[in-house]
């Protein structure tokens, strides 16, 4: 097993990409902490797995993030892996017409939540002398996404923050990477398609975005995440890996 007896935290772990990571890490032998705002979904997922724990968490609040890390170390003795997956994508306008409150809302979760997760996990990982952190960014952080300035900027910030953290913590044997998914088949994407004037045409447009056919599965993202947090990637740090069907290669 690739994560045998590792202790892994996945924020936003109750659904979508986060849930897929939780299940994949668990299948590979990890003890997994499902950290999420949704108590019902998170507790149900953790209860269905024999080596999982649910922790209710608002990633925007540093004091809660700090306490979670302390509680996990008290329970398991260490933190081997952190996946900062919690994120939102609120519908927004072009920059000139954008709502400042929406901007701050997106940044509070996507950028600040990632920063807080790293900050408080790193304090324990530095003492341990090892650790692996994976931050869920986006293809939107690598190339411009007109009409979604706040989301794109927040994910670009996650990528740059990951690179800085990789350099700052290499001497402690801590690896930090970013994963950059394209359009992934999640409940959020399905809701966007359903709200379209023509859901059939919208789905076809999403499927045609990438050189590779189809919509990316959450399992494909979880497989890439597994590789980056495993010992197989022992010399990969500071990377921003696209899993986007070739979208950013255009």
TrEMBL record:
**Recorded GO terms, molecular function?**
oxidoreductase activity
PROSITE patterns registered for this protein in UniProt: ADH_SHORT
Pfam families, alphabetized: adh_short_C2 (PF13561)
The cross-references to InterPro entries, in alphabetical order and at most eight, read: NAD(P)-bd_dom_sf, Sc_DH/Rdtase_CS, SDR_fam
Q: Does the keyword Oxidoreductase apply?
A: yes
Keyword check for Oxidoreductase: yes
EC number(s)? 1.1.1.385
Keyword annotations: Oxidoreductase
Which principal EC class is assigned to this enzyme? Answer: oxidoreductase
According to its UniProt record, which protein family does this protein belong to? Belongs to the short-chain dehydrogenases/reductases (SDR) family.
Protein name according to UniProt: Dihydroanticapsin 7-dehydrogenase
């Amino acid at each position: 097993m690739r994560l045998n007896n590792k202790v892994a935290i996945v924020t936003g772990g109750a659904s979508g990409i986060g849930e897929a990571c939780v299940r994949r890490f668990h299948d590979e032998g990890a003890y997994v902490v499902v950290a999420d705002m949704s108590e019902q979904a998170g507790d149900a997922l953790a209860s269905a797995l024999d080596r999982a724990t649910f922790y209710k968490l608002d990633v925007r609040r540093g004091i809660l993030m700090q306490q979670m890390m302390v509680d996990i170390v008290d329970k398991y003795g260490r933190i081997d892996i952190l996946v900062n997956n919690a994120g939102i994508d609120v519908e927004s306008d072009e920059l000139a017409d954008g709502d400042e409150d929406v901007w701050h809302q997106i940044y509070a979760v996507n950028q600040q939540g990632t920063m807080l997760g790293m900050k408080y996990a790193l304090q324990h990982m530095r003492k341990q002398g090892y650790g692996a952190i994976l931050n869920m960014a986006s293809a939107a952080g690598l190339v411009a996404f007109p009409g979604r300035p706040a989301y794109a900027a927040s994910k670009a910030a996650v990528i740059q923050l990951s690179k800085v953290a990789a350099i700052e913590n290499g001497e402690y044997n801590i690896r930090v990477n970013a994963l950059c998914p394209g359009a992934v088949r999640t409940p959020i994407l399905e809701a966007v398609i359903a709200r379209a004037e023509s859901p059939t045409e919208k789905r076809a447009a999403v499927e045609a975005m990438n050189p590779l056919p189809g919509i990316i599965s959450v399992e494909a993202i979880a497989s890439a995440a597994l590789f980056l947090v495993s010992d197989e990637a022992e010399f990969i740090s500071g990377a921003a890996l696209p899993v986007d069907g070739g979208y950013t290669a255009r």
